[in-house]
Amino acid sequence: MVELKPIRMDEAARYLGYGDQTPDETILTLMKECEAPLMEACHPAYSVGIFELECCSEDEVRLADCALTLTGKDIVKHLVGCTKVAIVAATLGSGVDTLMRRLQLTNMPKALLTDAMAGAAIEQICDDIQSEIQGKMPLFRQTWRFSPGYGDLPLALQDELLAAVEANKRIGLMTTDSHMLTPLKSVTAIIGLQDMTKELRKVATEDGDAISAPVGACAAGACAGCAYHDSCLTRQDKTAEEPQDT
Fold it and tell me: Nearest to residue 153, comparing CAs of 70, 227, 54, 52?
């Protein structure tokens, strides 16, 4: 079970634009004053679904037992070599939105700091969710979190991601007409899962990168139209083993 931990002030400072620098004492004092009300307002909740990767083409990934189809070349590249996909939806709850609205009317500096700290808090929740998945699936390596709106993955897929893990019913997470998440401090993410019990090979991407991918990770029948058809060493090995016509 994932629970909210003390907020990492260095991460909150990064959200504020400080980078690796430490805020001055005035800012740090204000951040400490904001922490307790924020922690009280937070009610983290999350929903996770693990799906088999059924088939992928040059610009589309289909998942088994799920109506969701992931579109775009960037998500195909992100999931190369994965046999499973984790769909994650997480939120800090509507209490944070209420707190933020109150602060925006009464104390704008604290509203800005609280917003950054809430951003750090939801990221900590997502990190802990990934740790929980790792504990349940220790033989799988995870990719980093990929969310709708990043690269060429459409933001409009938010609705389908939420439906895939029943986030509306389970944790009260919804989208607006413009596909933004509500409550505001919420995250959806796609995490690829590579089976590390399989032998690893290098797969060359179209832009020249080399990605480690488990041999035999692709779903049956996935070769046709695959973005990595010409550079897949697994396919090349199989082709070399096939008897030649004489």
Answer: 70
Q: Which of 34, 85, 60 is nearest to 194 (CA)?
A: 85
| Strand bridging mode 186-195 / 181-182 | unpaired
DSSP string, 191-225: EEEEETTSPEEEEE-TTS-EEEEETT-SPTT--TT
DSSP label of 24: P
Q: What is the DSSP annotation of 47-58?
A: EEEEEEEEEE-S
Q: pTM score, two decimals?
A: 0.80
Q: Which CATH class is domain 9-241?
A: alpha beta
Q: Tell me the C-alpha to C-alpha distance, in Å, between residue 233 and each of 61, 111, 238, 241.
A: 20, 53, 9, 12
pLDDT digits 0-9 by tens, 150-167: 999 999 999 999 999 999
